[in-house]
# Entry
Amino acid sequence: MWNYEKRLQYPLNIKKPNAKLAQCIISQYGGPDGELGASMRYLSQRYTMPYPEVANLLTDIGTEELGHFEMVGAIVYQLTKNLSMEEIEKSGFAPYYIDHTTALWPQAAGGIPFNSCEFQSKGDIITDLMEDMAAEQKARTTYDNILRLVKDDPDVYEPIKFLRAREIVHFQRFGEALRITQEKLDAKNFYQFNPEFDRCKK
# Structure
C-alpha cells in the first residue's frame, strides 16, 4: 500500500547535541498529542468512515503523520547522538539513558509511556472528526511550546516550525471533511430525525 522514500519530509542536520531539548521534543514522538498517536488515530478511523473522500483524507493524513513520527525520531536521535556521560548526567537524561541508552522509545516529556488510550476511534463520523480537529490543535499547541524552547537553535527551530505548519493544514482539511460530512447527513435529515435512536420502543 505504501511506497517508502528514504528521505525525511524536511531535511535535518542538527550540529549541537542537547539532551534537555530532546527530553521535551520526545513528547511529539510518543506523548499524548504526538505523531504516533495521530497516525494510529487516523489510520484506525478510516475503516468506519462511510464517505470515500473523507476516508481517503484520513489515510493521507495518517500516512503523513508517520512521516512526522520519523522526523521527530530523527530530531531526538540527532540531539542525543554522541553525548558524553557528563552531558547525560548534567542534562537530567540519565533516567531515560538507564532504560533505553539513546535508543528511541515512545514516551511523553514527563516520562509517561505511549498508550493507545490517548487517542480515540469511535466509529461515529462527527465524533471522530471533532476528535481529529481537536488533536491537530493540541499538537499545534505542543509545537508552539517547543518552539519557545528551541528558538536559539535554527537547526531544531526550522523543522519544528515545519511540523507546526502541517498541524494547521491538517486542522483545516479536517474542517473541510466535517463540512462535507454534515452536508451529507443534513441531506438525510439526520439531525432532525434519526429513527434508529428516536423510535419509541413498544
About this structure: The CA atoms of residues 183 and 189 lie 10 Å apart. The chain has nine helices and no strands. The chain has a mean pLDDT of 92. The radius of gyration is 20 Å.
